[in-house]
Amino acid sequence: MKFQPKASHFINGAYVEDTNGALIDVIYPATGEVIARLHSATPDIVNQALNSTKNAQAEWAALTGTERGRILRRAADIMRERNRELSILETHDTGKPLQETLVADATSGADALEYFGGLAASLTGEHIPLGGGDFVYTIREALGVCVGIGAWNYPTQIACWKGAPALACGNTMVFKPSETTPLSALQVAEILIEAGAPKGVYNVIQGYGDVGASLVTDPRVAKVSLTGSVPTGRKVYAAAADGMKHVTMELGGKSPMIVFDDADIENAVSGAILGNFYSSGQVCSNGTRVFVQKGIKEAFLKRLSERLENAIIGDPLDENVNFGPMVSENQLNIALSYVEKGKAEGARLVYGGTRIEGDGYYMQPTVFADVADDMSIAREEIFGPVMSVLDFDTEQEVLARANDTEFGLAAGVFTNDLTRAHRIVAGFEAGTCYINTYNLAPVEAPFGGSKMSGVGRENSKLAINHFSEMKTVYVSMNDVAAPY
Ligand code: NDP
C-alpha cells in the first residue's frame, strides 16, 4: 500500500488502531488502485478520542493566546515546507491534479493556521462603562470540545479551516474526515504535535456517517462544524440542537453566475471555467447556473468551447495536467446521471458529456446550453463538471431567477457597469459574492452560505465568534439598592 499510514486514527499524540472497525479502502481515483486500507472508528476509539480531547482542553485554554498562536504558526511553516509531499498525498487521496493541490490545499490550510495563529493573541473581551462607577467586562471563553466533520473535496483545507480557529480560541477538536479521503487530516494532526501542540488538542478519527453521528450527539461535545451536503447538514444540525450545541454548517449550493452583454467575455469565460471545472467541478461554491445575456450567448458558448479544447486531461501527477478524475466512481456516476437527465429534459449538450475510457473516474468537462430554470441540472447540486448555461434578457428578470433556489452559498456577476454590479450583488441571496471574478476564498474574508447553504461563517475574524462565547461580568462599585 503506497500511502498506508501507521494506523487509522491519531489520538493523544499517537497513531491508534482498532481492527474491529469496518474496512475503509482508500482509492486513487486516477487508476482505481487501493493505496491505503483503514478502519472506521469503533465506539471504543470514539470514546478514547473524546476523552483525550476533553482532558487536553483546560490546559490548552490556559496557555496565553501568544503561546497557542506560536504553535499554530509553526504548524503553518511546517506545512509550507512539506507542501510538495502533502500535495502528492492530497492528489492521491482526491484525484485532483498536482497543479491544483500544490497551490490550493496544504497552502490554504497553512494560510488558516497562520492567520488564526496571528489572531490568537488578540482575542479579548471588552470593558463596558455603565455610569455611576459600575461596569461590565466580558471574557471571551473557549466553547470546549469541538467536532469537525469534513467533505472529500478539500480534505486538508477543511481540516485546517475548522481546526485553526477552534484551537486559536482555546478549544480542542476531534476531526472526522470523509471516509473517501481520510489520509491528509492525519498529517495535519501529526504536524500540530510536531509544532508543539499538547497531546489531545487535535485528534483525528476515521469513519462513515455513523461515526460522525456518534460524535455529534456526545454530551462531551460543545460545538459541531460540518462541511457537507444539505441533507447531511439537516441531520447534523437537528442532532446538535438536541444538546443545544453550537454549529457551523458549510453546505452545498447551486450558485448563479450572471454574465451581462457588456462584460469582458474572455474574463467571463475564465470565471465560468474556474467556477465549474476546477477540481473537476467538485467545489461547493461553483457557479453552475451561468446566466448569459441573450446578445452574447453564442459568442460566449463558442469561446467557452474553444477554451475547453485546451484543457489537459490526464494523469493528475503530471504537473501540466489541469483536469483530473472525479473523486470516486460513485461521484462520477452521479455526474453522468445528470448528463442523461439534462438531455432527457431537453437541454442542448454543447460540450463533453461522456465518461473517458480507462480505469480512472474521468469524465469530460460538460456544458449544456438552452437550460430552463426548472430542469434538474439547473435546480440540483451535481458536484461534478457539468455547467448549465441559461439565457436572459433583463437585469430584473435575471436577479429574480438567480435567487429562485433553496441554496444561497455563492453568486457572481460579470459586467463593466459599476453601479449595476453593486446593485446585483446587493440583491443576491448568497453568502459569498463575486464581481468580475469567481471562486476565490482567501482566509481573510468570511466564507459561508445563506438559506439552505449553511449557518455561520468560516475564515476571517468572524470565525472567532463561532468558536468562542462571551461571559458577562457585572461589577458594582456601589451599594446594592434592594427595595426592602
Ligand atoms: P456528505 O454530506 O455526504 O458528508 C459530509 C461528511 O459528513 C462526511 O464526513 C460524512 O461521512 C459525514 N456524515 C454523513 N452523515 C452523517 C451524520 N448523520 N452525522 C454526522 N456526520 C455525517 O458530503 P460529501 O462528503 O459527499 O461532500 C459533498 C458535499 O459537501 C456537497 O454537497 C458540497 O456542496 C458540500 N461542500 C460544502 C462546502 C462548503 O464550504 N459550503 C465545501 C465543500 C463541500 P461519510 O462521508 O463517511 O458519509
Structural summary, described in words:
With 484 residues, this protein is an alpha/beta fold. It contains 16 helices and 22 strands. The strands form 6 sheets. A 7-stranded mixed sheet has the order 14-15-16-13-12-18-19, sandwiched between helices. A hairpin with a 4-residue loop joins strand 3 and strand 4. Helix 6 (155-168) runs parallel beside helix 7. The longest helix is centred in the N-terminal third of the chain and has 20 residues, at 43-62. It is globular and about 75 Å long. It binds NADPH dihydro-nicotinamide-adenine-dinucleotide phosphate. NADPH dihydro-nicotinamide-adenine-dinucleotide phosphate binds at residues 149-153, 176, 178-180, 208-209, 212-213, 216, 227-229, 232, 235-236, 250-253, 284, 381, 383, 409, 449, 454.
The low-pLDDT segments are none
Mean pLDDT: 98
Count, helices: 16
Strand content: 15-25%
Overall 3D shape: globular
What integer value in Å does the Rg equal?
24 Å
Strand order across the biggest sheet?
Answer: 14-15-16-13-12-18-19
| Share in helix | 25-40%
Instruction: Report the strand count.
Output: 22
Largest sheet: 7 strands, mixed
SS content category: alpha/beta
Termini separation comes to: 78 Å
Bound molecules: NADPH dihydro-nicotinamide-adenine-dinucleotide phosphate
Key terms for this structure?
six-stranded mixed sheet; 22 strands; alpha/beta; binds NADPH dihydro-nicotinamide-adenine-dinucleotide phosphate
Topology record:
Elements (H helix, E strand, L loop, with lengths): L8 E3 L2 E3 L6 E6 L4 E7 L3 H20 L2 H17 L1 H12 L3 H7 L1 H14 L7 E3 L5 E8 L2 E5 L5 H14 L3 E5 L6 H12 L7 E3 L4 H9 L3 E7 L2 H13 L3 E5 L5 E4 L5 H13 L11 E5 L3 H12 L20 H16 L3 E4 L14 E4 L6 H4 L6 E7 L2 H9 L3 E2 L1 E5 L3 H10 L4 E4 L14 E2 L2 E2 L6 H5 L1 E8 L9
Helix pairs in contact: 2-5, 2-7, 4-5, 5-6, 6-7, 10-11
Bound molecules: NADPH dihydro-nicotinamide-adenine-dinucleotide phosphate (NDP).
NADPH dihydro-nicotinamide-adenine-dinucleotide phosphate (NDP) binds next to helix 8 and helix 9.
